[in-house]
Specification:
The structure holds two protein chains of two kinds.
Chain A: H1 2-23, E1 34-41, H2 48-64, E2 68-69, E3 72-80, H3 85-98, E4 103-106, H4 110-123, E5 127-128, E6 146-147, H5 158-167, E7 172-178, H6 181-196, E8 200-207, H7 215-224, E9 228-232, H8 235-247, E10 256-258, H9 265-268, E11 279-282, H10 291-304, H11 310-328, H12 336-345, E12 358-359, E13 365-376, E14 382-393, H13 401-404
Parallel strand pairs in A: 1-3, 1-4, 4-5, 5-6, 7-8, 7-9, 9-10, 10-11
Antiparallel strand pairs in A: 2-3, 11-13, 12-13, 13-14
Helix pairs in contact in A: 2-11, 3-4, 5-6, 11-12
Chain B: H1 12-39, H2 42-67, H3 75-92, H4 97-119, H5 124-144, H6 146-149, E1 155-156, H7 167-190, H8 192-202, H9 204-209, H10 214-240, E2 242-243, H11 245-248, H12 250-263, H13 270-286, H14 292-306, H15 310-322
Antiparallel strand pairs in B: 1-2
Classes of the chains: A alpha/beta, B mainly alpha.
Chain lengths: 420, 332
């Protein structure tokens, strides 16, 4: 009867499957031979372009130091997280459990990073997140082995920008932002600082990711008659908003401020004059007149024929930071306690940032935040140049960390807006 | 989109002949599954665990698709809701994880009941589209209701209870759930109720004229199927310790359906083969190339062209062809 046959076949298939798994490349670990770094980057899915730059920036650094640190060879194992948290988790498991990676790096989307962070929380594998900006990872739900080397927390840079806006005399802001946690957090930082400094938020417009037509929002923004507009956008949304802001005639009438991603190279690379003059805040300005910055920009541009984006830059700096710590402990990354403590104590002075940086007590870097403006460079390309600097900005701005973390995380419902 | 179910088999005579050998084979397969942790390193074991969990999801889809003739694209949402409820209960409300899992399965069953009420009166492509739309609603809610679901960022769990924290112990726990649930499903589709379902699949009008309450049968089948998907969702929470909108999105439903189709629609146990094939392929191919989705896509096309009955369905037919005397009962 075929039921039996069926069981036979399924038995065979299970057996075949098992052999398949067993035969899978099981990399034997050569002790002391090389340091294995698991790099997760989206090579497929919605943010694949950013993922490519993560890999480029990361490998560019390691090649520049001959793929070694602390006297040991460094081996980079790249995995595709497919822009999906479930896939990211599976890849993290493979890197840690099968490929025996000493530590993990990377991921782009907040949800992929949060999923992997929750996984390494259970097994203590060090995990460095130069792009994942979700505030709480280094605040309310901090995980000791998750460190934002080269990265920043979402609300960290929008606060100095709000302060700068107040200094320019702007008192009324309208905000337009992508409706997800990263957007809520960046807007929250801006709104809280701006209103506490005496400004007013006239309106906040949340739009879904991948909005193609911004005219309904821009119409409302214009009718509010704000002094200034703050836009929190990433990727294609940002490009579309900047284009439509110009084509609806708002450019030149109401100044446009943006979160760091709004005028990142990954966005303005494809834009023309419409992006000129937008002011954003970040830890890095590719147009800064600093030798270290320009050396990095030149090295990257020569190799990949484009100006580096946030993704490439952050991973370059993150890798540099961790490499310095590995050198300090002579490659003993197997001692995780020592390794993590050393990374947290390492100050980075010679990075493309051009300024020394260090970690706060929560694993998030303290940066000199630059207020930057988009201008055309001598090659006719647009890039960001610094117009002002806020030294030593931590993720807690001027608040006391403990008191600050008692307020809720930023969300659509909580933006920290001070009632006038 | 039509999915041709494999003509099912059990005749009383065949069952009698097969019984003794059947138990032998079941015993052997179970033994092999029990022995896996002894031979597999931890990562491969977690892949095996994942295969078991997704087999359950694929089987729950097969109960409806293969036996009731209704292909659902909403099961990812049902599966995911169970996961969301369990994590929300245990992590956000600090509740007991076991109660959370129970609530998750209940929520999945309730959601399936709602889906069923709306969808059972349709069939074919309309059923497909309706379940697709219902699944999208759930996805939309999970994405936008940030206060509860964490929006895009999802929810993080509190980890597995100490008892099943290890790879091997968790694998055994999953096996201890999946094996009896599989048996229950097997009984379910081979019961008189299951026969009625197959009748409905072949001809709804005839079953109606024979006096069967077709909508009620389909409703029960859908709810039962949702219950099974909910169990899979609960296990997935324990496995992944994380849930986000990608767990309830369309690709999850499609993934489950593809596993059922790859194994063979209407074979029930084929889902194990389908889930194993897809998950192992995914893992093996993605280790070598970033173009792995392309390879997977091509593989599905090849399967659809050369073995639309699925791996198990095709194997059955080949075996029957090679040994016609023994399998004459199959040739209809």
């Amino acid at each position: 009867m075929d039921r039996r046959q069926f069981l036979k076949t399924s038995g065979l298939a299970v057996a075949a499957g098992t052999t398949g798994i067993l035969a899978a490349p099981n990399i034997a670990r050569a002790e002391g031979a090389s340091i294995r770094i698991g790099l997760m980057a989206p090579q497929t899915g919605v943010v694949a372009a950013g993922g490519r730059e993560i890999i480029d920036g990361f490998t560019l650094f390691w090649e520049s130091v001959g793929n070694q640190a602390g006297g040991r060879k460094v081996e980079i194992l790249v995995e595709d997280d497919a822009s999906n948290p479930d896939t990211a988790l599976q890849k993290a498991r493979r890197l840690v459990e099968q490929a025996k990676a000493d530590f993990l790096f990377g991921n782009l989307l907040a949800n992929t990073g949060l999923a992997v962070a929750n996984y390494v929380k259970g097994n203590g594998t060090p995990y460095f997140i130069p792009v994942i900006a979700a505030d709480d990872l280094t605040q309310r739900s901090r995980i000791k082995n998750v460190i934002r080397a080269g990265g920043y927390s979402a609300s960290q840079f929008s606060r100095p920008l709000a302060d700068w806006a107040l200094k320019q005399g702007y008192r009324k802001v309208a905000m337009i932002a992508q409706d997800y946690t990263f957007g809520h957090e960046q807007c929250g930082g801006f709104a809280q600082t701006f209103t506490e400094g005496g400004g007013a938020v006239l309106g906040q417009f949340w739009h879904p990711l991948n909005t193609s037509d911004f005219s309904p929002y821009l119409g409302q923004v214009a009718s509010l008659k704000p002094d200034v507009v703050f836009a929190m956008e990433t990727g294609a949304d940002s490009a579309r908003l900047i284009q439509q802001y110009a084509s609806f005639g708002l450019k030149g009438q109401i100044p446009l401020l943006g979160a760091q991603n709004a005028t990142d190279q990954s966005v303005i690379r494809t834009l023309g004059a419409e992006c000129e003059g937008i002011v954003t805040s970040a830890h890095f300005a590719e147009g800064a007149d600093l030798p270290a910055t320009q050396a990095f920009v030149k090295a990257y541009s020569d190799k990949f024929s484009k100006i580096p984006s946030l993704y490439a830059f952050s991973h370059y700096v993150g890798a540099m930071w961790v490499a310095k710590a590995i050198n300090a402990i002579n490659g003993k990354v197997d001692d995780r306690e020592l390794f993590l403590d050393t990374v947290l104590k390492t100050d980075l002075s010679d990075s493309p940032l051009g300024k020394p940086v260090r970690f706060d007590d929560y694993g998030n870097p303290i940066y000199d935040v630059v207020i930057r403006k988009t201008v055309k460079n001598k090659d006719g390309k647009y890039w960001n140049v610094p117009v002002d600097t806020y030294p030593q900005v931590s993720q807690f701005w001027k608040y006391d960390p403990v008191a600050y973390m008692k307020q809720p995380s930023y969300s659509r419902d909580f933006q920290g807006i001070k009632k006038a | 989109m039509t999915i041709l179910p494999i003509s099912s088999e059990t005749t009383a005579a065949g069952a009698r002949i097969a019984r003794s050998q059947l138990w032998l084979w079941i015993g052997l397969v179970l033994l092999a599954l029990c022995a896996l942790p002894l031979v597999l390193p931890s990562y491969q074991l977690s892949i095996a665990t994942e295969i078991l969990i997704f087999s359950l999801l694929a089987m729950s889809i097969d109960v409806l698709a293969g036996f009731g003739g209704r292909t659902s694209l909403g099961h990812g949402a049902i599966f995911g809701i169970s996961a969301y409820v369990a994590i929300y209960w245990s992590a956000s409300l600090d509740g007991n994880i076991w109660i959370g899992l129970l609530l998750g399965v209940l929520a999945a069953t309730a959601l399936a009941a709602v889906f069923a009420l709306l969808a059972i009166r349709t069939s074919g492509v309309y059923f497909l589209l309706l379940t697709l739309a219902l699944g999208m609603i759930v996805w939309g809610v999970c994405l936008r209701w940030t206060g509860v679901t964490g929006g895009e960022n999802g929810l993080r769990g509190i980890g597995r209870p100490a008892l099943i924290a290890g790879h091997a112990s968790f694998y055994y726990a999953v096996l201890a759930v999946v094996a009896p649930v599989t048996w229950v499903m097997w009984r379910f589709v081979h019961s008189p109720f299951g026969l009625t379902l197959r009748g409905i699949r072949e001809s709804e009008s005839r079953m109606r004229s024979l006096g069967y309450n077709v909508p009620l049968h389909l409703f029960i089948a859908f709810v039962a199927s949702g219950f099974f998907a909910g169990i899979a969702g609960g296990l997935y929470v324990l496995f992944n310790n994380f849930v986000s909108p990608s767990t309830v999105q369309l690709s999850q439903s499609v993934g489950g359906l593809l596993m059922a189709i790859t194994g063979g629609i209407g074979t029930l146990l084929g889902s194990f083969v389908g889930a194993a094939a897809i998950i192992i392929l995914e893992n093996a191919v993605s280790a070598f190339t970033a173009r792995w989705p392309t390879v997977l896509g091509l593989t599905f096309i090849l399967i659809m062209v050369f073995a639309p009955e699925g791996i198990v369905g095709r194997a059955r037919i080949l075996l029957a062809r090679r040994n016609p005397s023994k399998h004459s009962r199959l040739s209809k």
